[in-house]
């Protein structure tokens, strides 16, 4: 098993750190800067540069040997940068390829006015970035169909984990409790992104899978819960209508839904952190919330 990751960022590093057999499963991943190489090496990734401008011979050679391809690069204003440069290579020069995993977002579902949505639900994206993501999903689906390879589309909810969570925001003073009545969001811990990705990759699963927790919740409740665990006063509540937000931040609140993970569970995956309460309690207890050091990366779930 040789894995190639386009875009070995936060989720990609969590996936690599959870490698069940580093001695026999090789992982290569791309980044846009050599400054990221040490962190990738620490996570267990052989790093290569991919800058969306060209496809190096090193990347081409690694793709030719890959059995599993993971794509974790978002589309830009002109489309999917991976497909733009590597589609021909994937079609014609990856003879060992057995499976593709595409990391997408639950944003493709758009607004469902707080109702539940599953993988069979209607996709009606609102923001331009979510529209582009759905188009990228469809392009990868067409490619996978043409080359007769299974494609798992993992639709991720709001990502958190070591170094990226409510504790960090409380510590650095950026935590806010914005209140929009009726608004909820789903979340997913990086360890469960890694775990579900390994689960699906090893089974060479095909289809759409929501990778999200069991407990959609108002964002202000998460901040208050984290503050209670830390023993500090939570920041004051701010009515959404009066909040000073960037257009992108405000657009997130234009999509309100509860996302079901039943399909992933029915496929045999067991969540390490089924909700933010369990995750925050665990991260505070073991110290992984800070994201400092290799030990935090290695705390990612080991696949079954």
Write the layout of secondary structure elements.
Layout: E1 2-6, H1 10-17, E2 26-31, H2 37-43, E3 46-49, H3 57-65, E4 68-71, H4 81-92, E5 99-105, E6 116-117, H5 128-147, E7 151-156, E8 158-160, H6 166-172, E9 177-179, E10 187-189, H7 190-203, E11 207-211, H8 219-230, E12 237-239, H9 247-252, E13 258-259, H10 262-266, H11 276-286, H12 294-298
Helix pairs in contact: 1-2, 1-7, 8-11
Commentary on this structure:
By secondary structure, this protein is α/β, with parallel strands linked by helices. The protein has one domain: NAD(P)-binding Rossmann-like Domain (Rossmann fold), CATH 3.40.50.720. It is built from 12 helices and 13 strands. The protein has helices at residues 10-17, 37-43, 57-65, 81-92, 128-147, 166-172, 190-203, 219-230, 247-252, 262-266, 276-286, 294-298, and strands at 2-6, 26-31, 46-49, 68-71, 99-105, 116-117, 151-156, 158-160, 177-179, 187-189, 207-211, 237-239, 258-259. It has a 7-stranded parallel beta sheet, with helices on both faces. Helix 8 (219-230) packs parallel to helix 11. The protein is globular and about 55 Å long. The relative contact order is 0.15. The model is unreliable at 293-304 (pLDDT under 50).
Strand content: 15-25%
- Secondary structure class reads alpha/beta
The biggest sheet, with number of strands, parallel, antiparallel or mixed sense and barrel status, is: 7 strands, parallel
Q: Uncertain runs with pLDDT below 50, 5 residues or more?
A: 293-304
What is the level 1 CATH name?
Answer: Alpha Beta
The CATH topology label is Rossmann fold
User: What's the helical proportion of residues?
Assistant: 25-40%
How many individual domains? 1
Question: What is the CATH superfamily label?
Answer: NAD(P)-binding Rossmann-like Domain
Give me the side-by-side strand order of the main sheet: 3-2-1-4-5-7-11
Q: Calculate Rg over CA atoms.
A: 19 Å
What would CATH call the architecture? 3-Layer(aba) Sandwich
Instruction: Give the topology string: H per helix, E per strand.
Output: EHEHEHEHEEHEEHEEHEHEHEHHH
Strand runs, count: 13
Arithmetic mean pLDDT: 94
Cα distance spanning the termini: 16 Å
Based on CA inertia axes, which overall geometry fits?
globular
